[in-house]
Write a structure and sequence with these properties.
Blueprint: H1 2-44, H2 52-77, E1 80-85, E2 96-100, H3 107-115, E3 125-130, H4 139-145, E4 148-150, H5 157-173, E5 179-181, H6 189-203, H7 217-226, E6 238-245, H8 255-260, E7 267-276, H9 284-308, E8 321-325, H10 330-358
Parallel strand pairs: 1-7, 2-5, 2-6, 3-4, 3-5
Antiparallel strand pairs: 1-8, 6-7
Length: 359
């Protein structure tokens, strides 16, 4: 018995040490990636005077590399993603609106992990996110990339939507972005679940357990501004509904799981359903009805998955692709770590040299 206790304590101590080492590694990774990323963007900014498209392509390449660093965090801890449904790769030549359900802080890193291996596409994505994200360590990268930060609260709703309409023209269209990521639920499942249920009861809407009634204000603006009727040269043509299904019901992975590696390796299912924008209602109330039906179907898929343990990828399409684990390229991760570490070293030595010359 005594030996068993010692073994348990030793195993727990080693796990704590491993978690601490991973947190320090992630923090260090941020330290030698984000400042260099920011510096390179600043140094390249004069390119806008010569060729804005060239500068945008340069920034997109660096943004893809940063996404790969985040992807590496998930890969190194053993978190796998199994994609099913429509093939996302078949639609990468289209302008896409990407709409995932929103359960936890792991959603964004997992989406970055999905995008990062798709070279040439992942940098041309614009994200819509809560304004508080702007003040995180990754906020400066998103700001330089031209992502849109939403001001939460009913009192800011109309102004935010107006700002979004302008931002879509000034950034998405101007910079030639190919994909827009929108979380229609507007917040994490745990935070909005009770409010959603109350709203559904008042409006006689479906009682959703694994997702919430979607908000369609931003979607309405997007469809009207850069959809087929938005009078832009290259409108959004496809809507990709994304269902993220974490392994355990009611316990989605989160940033703590990714940073510490405390949770054992798992596989998260991500299911795609692609719709033509021309088949989606443009009138606000009809669009809301369409979205509610879509989320009711999403809820049915999640309910079946958590009751059976098998993702029902053919529930709405008998020909849907079965779950396939997303592949990673460890050599690419190694190259990028070496690049950012080398660039950080060169930049640091240069600053030290300049400091010694002038002071």
């Amino acid at each position: 018995m005594e030996r068993g206790v010692k073994e348990v304590l030793l195993e727990y101590s080693w796990k704590c040490l491993s978690a601490l080492m991973r947190v320090l590694w992630v923090l260090l990774n941020n330290f030698y990636c984000i400042p260099v990323h920011t510096l390179l963007i600043v140094l390249a900014s004069p390119l806008t005077l010569v060729s804005k498209p060239l500068f945008y392509r340069f920034e997109e390449t660096l943004f893809t590399w940063i996404l790969s660093m985040v992807s590496c965090w998930c890969y190194s801890v053993g978190f796998q993603i199994a994609e099913s449904g429509d093939s996302l790769d078949d639609f990468l030549n289209n302008k896409l609106l990407f709409m995932p359900n929103h359960q936890s802080t792991a959603d964004v890193p997992f989406l970055m992990t999905i995008f990062a291996p798709r070279i040439g596409f992942s940098g041309r994505i614009m994200w819509l996110m809560d304004k508080i994200f702007k003040y995180t360590n990754f906020g400066v990268v998103s700001w330089l990339h031209g992502d849109f930060f939403i001001q939460a609260g009913k009192e800011n709703r109309e102004q935010s939507l107006s700002n979004l309409r302008t931002h879509l023209q000034d950034v998405f269209v101007e910079r030639g972005r190919d994909c827009l990521v929108l979380f229609p639920e507007g917040g994490f499942l745990r935070n909005r679940k009770e409010v959603s249920k109350s709203f559904a009861k008042k409006r006689d809407l479906p009682d959703l357990e694994y997702c919430t009634i979607p908000r369609t204000g931003a979607l309405d603006v997007i469809i009207k501004a850069i959809g087929p009727s938005g009078h832009v040269k290259q409108p959004i043509t496809k809507v990709v509904d994304v269902t993220i299904a974490y392994p355990e019901e009611g316990k989605p992975l989160d940033l703590v799981s990714i940073f510490t590696g405390w949770t054992p390796p798992t596989t998260t299912h991500v299911h795609y359903r692609v719709f033509d924008v021309k088949d989606i209602p443009t009138e606000s109330e009809a669009l809301f009805t369409w979205m509610v039906k879509l989320y009711e179907e999403k809820n049915r898929m999640l309910a079946e998955f958590y009751s059976s343990g098998v993702y029902p990828h053919t529930m709405f399409d008998p020909k849907a692709n079965p779950p396939t684990v997303l592949e990673h390229n460890p050599r690419r991760y190694l190259f990028l770590h070496v690049f950012f570490l080398s660039a950080t070293t060169v930049a640091s030595l240069s600053f030290i040299r300049l400091y010694s010359l002038f002071f």
